[in-house]
Amino acid sequence: MTVLQSIFLGIVQGLTEFLPVSSSGHLAILENMFHIETDGGMLFDIMLHVGTLLVVFIVYRRDIWKMICEAVFMFVDICSNLKTFLLNKIHKTSLKYKKIVHNSYRKFVVLVLVSTVPTGLIGVVGSDLISDAGDTLLIPGICLLITAVLLLMADTVQEGNKLPRDISYRDALIIGAAQGCATLPGLSRSGTTIAVCLLCGMDRRFAVKYSFILSIPAIMGAAVLEIKDVIAEPVEMGQIGIYAIGMVCAAIVGYICIKTMLVVVRNKKFVYFSGYCAIVGLIAIAGHFLL
């Protein structure tokens, strides 16, 4: 891989990770159409995703910090309740238990954990299918058409007002399952999860926040599972520096795009991305049969 190819794919990753047009779909299409060899492509893909993951931490740093703090406090309260349970059993007392989920950030933490379960299960069970899907233009093309439909639905759905306290764990499971399915190349993760969040009645601004923060455990989990494959792949040391350039480009462009998404969702402008996904999807399907 050349420096220019790394920069180009990094820009594509930054643009498509947060804009609802599928980063994995675009990378699969570009690599298939232009026969780009990444010489250790698994490591390169992970580094690109790490670049965009850093952007989520930067943009939502206050929310993430509060969630981390509340997660720690929840763990402490759970341990306290366990101690109370043992004391009640041993000494036949009736000491009161602490309420674990008693504020919005604690509920947010639990919702993300609940959503992560189906995402992880689908990711593990369907890993081979997901890997093979990126080797052809047909699957990304079809999935991009599905993304186009989801984005149209997101624009037309009735305005919701659900915040963490109003969101059910059933909603969280549905959103997590949608994110798991969105690991297929061409099915936009952000577009799919935001659309499903809106269909579940979430506030539009919070739907964006939920979608992007939910990506953190998904991307980190996928990276951990792929470490053994990365180690097994032969990668030249000179390529790692080239990969790093692509990662930086993905982070810079991603920061701009995540800010853009807040405006897009608030003003219901998904229709433009829907049209774009439909066109690219049709081109990819045509390319599968013609190339």
Task: Explain how this protein is built.
The protein has 291 residues and is mainly α. 79% of the residues lie in helices and 0% in strands. The chain has twelve helices and no strands. The longest helix has 31 residues, at 61-91. It is globular, with a radius of gyration of 21 Å. The chain starts with a helix and ends with a helix.
Jot down its keywords:
globular; mainly alpha; 291 residues
Any low-confidence stretches, pLDDT <50, length ≥5? none
Bin the helical content: over 70%
What is the number of E strands?
Answer: 0
The DSSP helix count reads 12
| CA-based shape | globular
**Average pLDDT over all residues:** 87
Counting helices, strands and paired strands, the structural category is mainly alpha
| Biggest beta sheet attributes | none
Terminal CA distance reads 22 Å
Give helix and strand order, one letter per element, not per position. Answer: HHHHHHHHHHHH
Q: What percentage of the residues does DSSP assign to strands (E)?
A: under 5%
Radius of gyration: 21 Å
Helix and strand topology:
Layout: H1 3-18, H2 23-33, H3 41-59, H4 61-91, H5 104-125, H6 127-133, H7 138-156, H8 169-181, H9 189-199, H10 204-232, H11 237-266, H12 270-290
Task: Please summarize what this structure is.
This protein is mostly helical and 291 residues long. The protein has twelve helices and no strands. It has helices at residues 3-18, 23-33, 41-59, 61-91, 104-125, 127-133, 138-156, 169-181, 189-199, 204-232, 237-266, 270-290.
